[in-house]
Amino acid sequence: MESYYEVIKVLGGTTVVLAALIGFIGKVWLSKIVENHKSSLQQQLLDMQANVDATNKKLDAELQSATYISRVQLEHEYKIYQEIWSLLVELKSATLRLRPLMDYVDPNQSQEERIRERLKVFAEKFNAVFKALEHNRPFYPHDIYEVLDHVCEKCRHESIDSEYIERNNSEYYKEARNNHQEIVDLINSACEAIRTRLGDVRVK
Known about the structure:
mainly alpha; two-stranded parallel ribbon; elongated
């Protein structure tokens, strides 16, 4: 025990030894904190790099999928969509009026006469859309043509179904509701297809 106190005395006393010991422990603790913080920063940098890499891959994929066309071609295609869409809106209205769920009925007009009159309007609108689709077919993508052609086909089916008035009202108008909803959904799909096309093209 005496030798222990002698050593402490030689080293400068209890206070000096404790101060040195506390200083040593403090350095070890600080070193560990710095190391842990360094590790955390490295992980954050790795996470940021992973996010940057993922963003770059996404942008590269979008650029690869983009279609480059001339400004003249884009403007011409855009005009085609404007023309067809305007005619399609009129066709939709004429189709849904063939057998509307709520309707004004002229007592002096039979149901057959009413259907015939509305079919005449429908035929005009249908032919206008069909003509625009076919005349411009080489100048816009085939997948857009198929979507729009599907709309026309469903409208044509509704015009045929509307002529069969021998069925009872419940069956007749249940079919009308289903057809109307399908036509609206198809037209919405056509709208999204055109928007996607215009969003994908780039001017070269």
